[in-house]
Every structure is written in structure tokens, then in C-alpha cells.
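Input (structure):
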């Protein structure tokens, strides 16, 4: 099992490697209890890397807190509703 520091380093390495490529950040239900773990870093990446899109699924807090994000999609409906209404059935 990897330690927290090893996992953090792998994540940092991935972001460094992918920052100049198209990146999609999916955020599910992240509020303001511990926003420094996911919410703020995702917003910062979306603002800093122009080919990054942030998609936020959040009923209560869909708004951005960071300026300069051009590729952002927010859903305030429940995830199950979004999936149900947008499911494509192939024959």
C-alpha cells in the first residue's frame, strides 16, 4: 500500500505531465468542509491550464470561487437524474 506522500507525489507527477494536454476534471458533490482537498485545487488547475474543463456536480454549491476559468460546466440536479435523462440506448 502506498503512503499518503507517495500517492500525493504520483498525483503531482500526473498533473505535471498532463497540464499541457486536454484534461477533464470531474467533481462530485464537493462542498466547503474541506475545499482545499479537491474544490480549490480543481478550480486552480482549470484557471491555470487553458485546455482543462471542470465539470461540477453539486446541488448546493455549483458556483465558482476562482476567476479566469473559461471551460466550466455545472449541474445542480442530482447525478441520477442527469444520467437517467441523458442515457443513450443503442440497439
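Output (sequence):
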Amino acid at each position: 500500500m502506498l503512503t499518503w506522500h507517495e500517492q500525493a507525489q504520483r498525483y503531482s507527477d500526473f498533473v505535471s505531465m498532463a497540464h499541457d494536454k486536454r484534461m477533464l476534471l470531474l467533481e462530485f458533490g464537493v462542498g466547503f468542509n474541506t475545499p482545499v482537498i479537491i474544490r480549490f485545487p480543481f478550480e486552480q488547475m482549470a484557471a491555470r491550464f487553458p485546455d482543462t474543463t471542470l465539470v461540477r456536480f453539486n446541488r448546493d454549491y455549483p458556483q465558482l470561487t476562482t476567476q479566469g476559468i473559461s471551460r466550466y460546466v455545472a449541474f445542480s440536479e442530482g447525478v441520477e437524474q442527469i444520467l437517467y435523462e441523458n442515457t443513450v440506448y443503442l440497439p
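Notes: The CA atoms of residues 6 and 12 lie 10 Å apart. The chain has a mean pLDDT of 90.
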